[in-house]
């Protein structure tokens, strides 16, 4: 199993050359990819986060994503562009190298606010970027969530331990793992009828980074 591979992922290519059966958790971007996968519903996740920010009063929402061609960036960016166009909001997208972690998130946030000081929400699917953005906002004297709301995708330890805790999404990864194992055994045993298995519906976990009413 591979988790959220990038387009033209060299690890995937090497394993396929060796004839090893593969399944992916998350779609591999690229028109030529035929890798069976569990659909993590990236666009739905993006819309869930963006609609929440809008419902909290945000009207200038920025998107901070990784520069790599990974499904969770590609799909959320597509959802974001559709969302802001339909809502009549400005399109404010910035990309950073995911290997830069929190520091990359901090710098991207500084760049965003420097160019667009009226931003009132940041959707950062990478949890490290989101934590970095929170750190940068605090340095700039911006109150969270009063001045700028921040949300992320993965409801892991970073999101939970951030101060304030980050609104995130429960992807139901235990169920995802079970579905991936089932699909992999199908591939190993030559039952190749299913190439895409839809994962469970993501659920929003609202916390203090985006809502004053959160516990």
TrEMBL record:
Pfam families registered for this protein in UniProt: Peripla_BP_3 (PF13377)
Keyword Disulfide bond: no
Record bears the keyword Zinc-finger: no
Keyword tags: DNA-binding, Repressor, Transcription, Transcription regulation
Domain Transcriptional regulator LacI/GalR-like sensor intervals: 51-210
PANTHER family xrefs: HTH-TYPE TRANSCRIPTIONAL REPRESSOR CYTR, LACI-RELATED TRANSCRIPTIONAL REPRESSOR
Name of this chain's protein: Substrate-binding domain-containing protein
